[in-house]
Write a structure and sequence with these properties.
The protein has 352 residues and is α/β, with parallel strands linked by helices. The strands form two sheets. Strands 9-8-7-5-4-3-1-10-11-12 form a ten-stranded mixed β-sheet. Strands 2-6 form a two-stranded antiparallel sheet. α1 packs parallel to α2, α3 crosses α5 and α6 packs parallel to α8. The longest helix has 21 residues.
């Protein structure tokens, strides 16, 4: 999974995000929901929890339409992100959900690995009114990319990206907004300038670079594997920070020369990086819900056993949102003693 920030559709927010949100422990119902419409995936990506768990059948892993429609009825949603640990294009209910969102004048989109984004699916998404589509592409050549996104073929993804652009052109549509997401790690960060050159000729709208989402320092047991991977690949210490900064500088130079939109994350030592809160508004303005109806504070958590604020099998979403666990979570996040699950989060540390 590629984690999803609260700004999936342009224009992006600027300034201090927290200054735009009133930090009460009982805010109004959120206008943004991120729903894991399937926990099944066709890839085994090295930085994703899916790789460290048993495979999930696409039918068994799908969020049921009844739960989806119940949420739309209970929450005044204006922005809907249809993604979680799984690949959204595997959901048999994807277009039904997109259609419901569009009919309700809700902006809707998702992140995809694009391996299944053939011409038919591209035309379907454009015609269906999807507002944005984020495509994961973590390398500029087959070797590095395919070692990260196990099960994917580099050229297929690049061709599918170009095909999506053509689908927009055929339909005369400005949507979906197409953003490529590059998860920067030790093994691939040197390829970023080359990727910018490659993508500039395809016609996508933006490349967003992000660091690994979490260090999993609060988790044990089945998280040992992904915690070890993160410790080995994260660009958070020593020479890796210097390598990343060099790659980021060159990528920015290339993007500037080509007139290409590129967003880069902060690195440790950067002026806008740091420890502590001030850049996370998730629990006040959005929520993440797994395919089985577990409500979590955000998508950065990865793993419904790490923190649960309620389950929709037992309560309605408004009851959970206004309930004691959520209120206590907000109080702690806005203090000097944040929840353990937040301490290792890149967004909390302002390096995402």
């Amino acid at each position: 999974m590629t984690a999803q920030l609260n700004d999936p559709f342009p224009p992006r927010r600027t300034g201090n995000a927290r200054s735009m949100v009133t930090l009460t422990d009982d805010p109004p119902l959120p206008r943004h929901l991120q729903l894991e419409i399937t926990s099944a995936c066709n890839l085994r990506c090295t930085m994703c929890l899916v790789s460290y768990r048993a495979p999930v059948n696409k039918l068994a892993g799908a969020m049921r339409p009844e739960l989806f429609h119940r949420l739309l009825a209970d929450v005044p949603v204006r922005r809907l992100t249809l993604q979680g640990l799984g690949e959204p294009l595997l959901s048999p209910y994807l277009m039904e959900m997109v259609g419901a969102a569009v009919a309700g004048d809700i902006r809707v989109g998702f992140n995809t690995n694009a391996t299944l984004l053939n011409e038919r699916r591209a035309d379907e998404l454009v015609a269906g009114g999807v507002d944005w589509l984020h495509v994961s592409l973590d390398g500029a050549r087959p070797g590095v990319y395919e070692s990260i996104r196990a099960g994917a073929t580099f050229q297929t993804v690049v061709d599918n990206l170009a095909g999506l652009v053509r689908a927009k052109q055929r339909a005369g549509s400005s949507t979906p907004w197409i953003r490529v997401v590059f998860v920067a790690m030790r093994d691939n960060v040197g390829e970023l300038p080359e990727l910018v050159r490659l993508l500039s000729g395809i016609g996508i709208d933006e490349v967003r670079v992000q660091n690994l989402s979490h260090d999993f320092g609060d988790a044990t047991g089945e998280y040992d594997g992904i915690r070890a991977f993160t410790a080995n690949q994260a660009l958070w210490t020593g020479a890796d920070v210097d390598r990343a900064r060099t790659a980021f500088t060159e990528a920015a130079r290339v993007a500037g020369r080509l007139g290409f939109r590129l967003r880069l994350p902060a690195l440790p030592g950067d002026e806008n990086a740091g420890h502590g809160g001030g850049n996370c508004t998730w629990p006040w303005e959005a929520a993440y819900i797994t395919s089985t109806g577990v409500v979590q504070p955000c998508c950065m958590v990865m793993g419904d056993d790490r923190i649960t604020l309620g389950t929709l099998e037992e309560q309605s979403f408004p009851q959970i949102w206004h309930g004691a666990p959520y209120r206590e979570f907000r109080r702690r996040l806005d203090s000097t003693d944040p929840p353990d699950v937040c301490r290792g989060c890149s967004l909390y540390r302002r390096t995402f």
